[in-house]
Specification:
The chain has 10 helices and 8 strands. By secondary structure, it is an alpha/beta fold. A 5-stranded mixed sheet has the order 4-5-6-7-8. Strands 1-2-3 form a 3-stranded parallel sheet, with helices on one face.
């Protein structure tokens, strides 16, 4: 088994690099990849420890880059890149894009919407959170939900389906009051793909079925594969149904694309998702990566 979609304390995960290695060893995973958001600094840490003391499997270098696409955002996974080149690109692109400033901006914009909707909220300056590692949308959603009287003022799916519906449907759609324009803060899909390619890496589209703002995911997938240098798809993910997994595997076979898969593990920040097994029954076969990773 493998897990090629893992987040650590270097971005918005709650487990350290060594804790991830220990968990992977306990699960006897053949391959793992740490894919922190817009960062590859976990691999600096890995360079300074004896990995064999914690994990006996193989580690594939990874990164998950948030990219602007069609007035919204999607994620792009990069694998097996040249670390020094990727580290340099990350530094150059984000050196003037402080995550703390960006997330505070989003927090205030979303809080403003809550006020327009007359939602019951804790005063904004009393909400304690860490914009360096937490997402503004998650904090705002949790705050909204902490006041049951807000339910009558919101769409049923926004209230019932959790922060992912909030982030992947409501504030990602331009025709909603929640919309956040992120075009100035993140690279375009073309920029993200080009960066990974220039670093010698492979480009994969992760968790395509979670984007609830997409009207027709299959058509969007066709368009992304056609217009960008996509090497493969994440065919296995914690939120995929068996039907989703079957569809993506067949799509890769038909279009000669590589396959990958991962739990999207965040530790306590996504408590319903466990390393490698996702929500309990995720099993990602090692064989799917043999065609593109042979080390």
């Amino acid at each position: 088994m493998i897990d090629l979609h893992i987040h650590t304390t270097h971005s918005d995960g709650t487990k350290t690099v060594t804790e991830i290695l220990k968990q992977a060893e306990a699960l006897k995973l053949d391959y793992i990849s740490i894919t922190d958001h817009d960062k590859c600094s976990a691999y600096d840490e890995l360079k300074n420890i004896d990995i064999s003391n914690y994990y006996s499997g193989k580690i594939i270098k990874g990164i998950e880059i948030k990219a602007f696409y069609k007035e919204s955002t999607i994620d792009i996974l990069g694998y097996n890149y040249d670390y020094d080149k990727m580290k340099n690109w990350v530094y150059e692109y984000y050196k003037n894009k402080d995550r703390k400033i960006i997330e505070k901006k989003y927090f205030n914009k979303l809080y403003d919407v809550c006020e327009k909707l007359n939602l019951v909220m804790t005063p904004r300056n009393e909400i304690i959170w860490n914009p360096e590692i937490e997402w503004a949308s998650t904090i705002i959603y949790s705050e909204i939900k902490s006041h049951p009287e807000n339910r009558a003022k919101l769409p049923e799916d926004l209230w019932n389906e959790g922060p992912r519906t909030f982030s992947k449907k409501y504030y990602c759609k331009k025709d909603t009051i929640w919309y956040l324009d992120k075009s100035e803060d993140y690279p375009s899909v073309k920029e993200a793909v080009t960066a990974i390619k220039k670093c010698g890496g492979l480009v994969f589209l992760p968790h395509i079925f979670i984007y609830k703002w997409m009207k027709n995911i299959e058509n969007e997938l066709d368009e992304l594969v056609k217009n960008y240098e996509i090497d493969g798809l994440e065919c296995y993910h914690s939120d995929f149904t068996e039907e989703n997994i079957k569809y993506l595997n067949e799509y890769c076979d038909k279009n000669k694309l590589f396959k990958s898969g991962g739990s999207d593990y965040h530790g306590a920040n996504k408590p319903d998702i466990s390393l490698a097994i996702g929500k309990g029954n995720l099993q990602i076969p090692t064989d799917i990566i043999r065609s593109w990773y042979k080390k």
